[in-house]
Amino acid sequence: MSYTYEYPRAALTVDCIVFGLDEDELKVLLIQRGIEPFEGRWALPGGFVQVDESVDTAARRELREETGVTDVFLEQLYTFGAVDRDPRERVVSVAYYALVNLSDHRIQADTDARNAAWFSVYDIPELAFDHARILEMAHERLRGKIRYQPIGFELLPPKFTLTRLQRLYEQILDTKLDKRNFRKKILKMELLEALDEVETDVAHRAAQLYRFNADAYNEKIRTGFNFEL
Amino acid sequence: MSYTYEYPRAALTVDCIVFGLDEDELKVLLIQRGIEPFEGRWALPGGFVQVDESVDTAARRELREETGVTDVFLEQLYTFGAVDRDPRERVVSVAYYALVNLSDHRIQADTDARNAAWFSVYDIPELAFDHARILEMAHERLRGKIRYQPIGFELLPPKFTLTRLQRLYEQILDTKLDKRNFRKKILKMELLEALDEVETDVAHRAAQLYRFNADAYNEKIRTGFNFEL
DNA sequence: TCAAAAGTGTTAAAAATACACCCATGG
DNA sequence: CCATGGGTGTATTTTTAACACTTTTGA
Predict the structure, then answer these.
(1) For chain A, counts of helices (H) and of strands (E)
(2) Cβ atoms of B166 and B218 closer than 8 Å
(3) The pairing of beta strand B25-32 with beta strand B11-22
(4) Cβ of residue A10 closer than 8 Å to a chain B Cβ
(5) At residue A6, does pLDDT exceed 70?
(6) Count of other CB atoms within 10 angstroms of residue B154
């Protein structure tokens, strides 16, 4: 089977940057390539966009097929369109970034039996293609966006403590935050719902658990509220 | 001449949203389509990405060919990849938005002798394809970005008055700003350089002219400064 | 001399920051 | 009983917001 066009066409792919928070450390899911070019190198999960699926759908499908990740926050990042970014032929790639909650996403080995592993964003091996640049841009986007959109919660389990949330912000923004001021600010937004539950299995006073209330957020947004931390 | 591939491929295009400020009104440059589909409808300037040029280059080329616009701020917006966005065949489009200074860009009729015209963003005719959605997203991006990046200056001539700058912000953010507070805030950033020149040909006291100092901005950025208005 | 926009400073309110101790729990 | 992190309030500084009159210029 073959397909013929009047003009040459670029191949279209998607690449996914999957961020996860592991013990307060921001990590990225990478896959070890099993084929040339860059055989053996680590790379972002991704693959070709099929002609009968939207680009968004392709990103979700690749994510599922290569990592088993489903039902997560996924947003388009940027399209990488340099002529020589793939040594084989012209390939344009639409990059997406995903935020997953590592405690319930135990990432499975991918269907192609390639190796998948989490790496700290501060200790990334040499990557295939222009994936280092893509990852850098995704990290930058995450840092920027987390301050004015409540996306940090996507990296946490549904129930979390305020300290855990604070450490998330500290890790991603690479700063120290004052505990009292952080709590004051985030609670004043009235987006977190205190549950009738506390931490368990900790060797100290158990912390209050909270849940992010997406409905409250959407309602506030409608009436001109601006999240900002 | 024809080109054959093992799998079907989407066509790849670029579309450009060109914003300009005309007498304090935010306008967009549209082109009237000369061919089916949507013949006669207004649409965003754009066209096919060639296989030997980067996507960014394609955007600049189309902008030049269709509108004569060169040397302007141009930034990737988003990639639109729904399956049925073009009724003919699968077309994925990478959208870019440009900011031009209308006083020195007298837009020329495009090379294909199609009609080009400026429309107020608040009074847009029915557009071809999903261009209404693309335009909406570009407008949203502009509104968001202008508050924390000094891109508003791209819409003004190199020398401008503070009142003109204020009206730009008022138009794009759709608010009223206080004159004294606006001036205080923007001047305190030390990004505007007062010139030894004032307005001419005005029937009232001539205003001081200023210039945006990009070098100062870059220097401040390096040392952790954050533009925000 | 009039019309039109330029230019300018102070006060009050709100938000951000800095900061330290007692509490509850499990080992 | 001790080590560990949980939880809390106030005072100070900084930032934002509200507000009105005089000046300059050309017509």
Answers:
(1) 5, 10
(2) no
(3) antiparallel
(4) yes
(5) yes
(6) 18
Give the closest residue to B58 by CA, choosing from A60, A81, A37, A178.
A81
pLDDT at residue number B108 = 61
**Is A227 in CB contact (< 8 Å) with chain B?**
no
Banded pLDDT at B112 (limits 50, 70, 90):
low
What's this model's pTM, rounded to 2 decimal places?
A: 0.95
- Min distance B81 CA to chain A CA atoms (Å): 5
DSSP letter at B6 equals: S
pLDDT one-digit tens code per residue, A92-122: 999 999 999 987 656 664 555 578 999 999 9
Return the number of CB contacts < 8 Å for A and B. Answer: 93
Q: What is the pLDDT of residue B173?
A: 95
Please check whether residue B146 is in contact with residue B170, taking contact to mean a CB–CB distance below 8 angstroms: no
Q: E strands along chain A, which residues?
A: 3-5, 11-22, 25-32, 42-43, 46-48, 73-80, 91-100, 116-120, 192-198, 208-212
Q: What phi and psi, each to the nearest 5 degrees, are found at residue A69?
A: -80, 125
Evaluate whether A98 touches A138 at the Cβ level (below 8 Å): no
B51 pLDDT band (50/70/90 cuts)?
very high
Q: CA B126, CA B120: separation in Å to the nearest integer?
A: 13
Q: How many CA atoms lie within 13 A of B39 on its CB side?
A: 3
Q: Which residues of A touch B7 (CB under 8 A)?
A: 3, 48, 50-51
User: Cβ distance A109 to A29 under 8 Å?
Assistant: no
Instruction: Report how far residue A177's alpha carbon sits from residue A187's, in angstroms, rounded to the nearest whole number.
Output: 15
DSSP E strands: which ranges in A81-213? Answer: 91-100, 116-120, 192-198, 208-212
Q: Is the dihedral of CA A187, A191, A196, A197 positive or negative?
A: negative
> For position B103, what pLDDT does the model report?
76
Lowest mean pLDDT among A43-52, A96-105, A151-160, B95-104: A96-105
Q: Which of A55-59, A104-108, B23-27 has the highest mean pLDDT?
A: A55-59
Preferred mutation among B1, B2, B4, B5 to probe A, highest tally of A CBs within 10 A:
B5
Tens-digit pLDDT profile for residues A23-37: 889 999 999 999 999
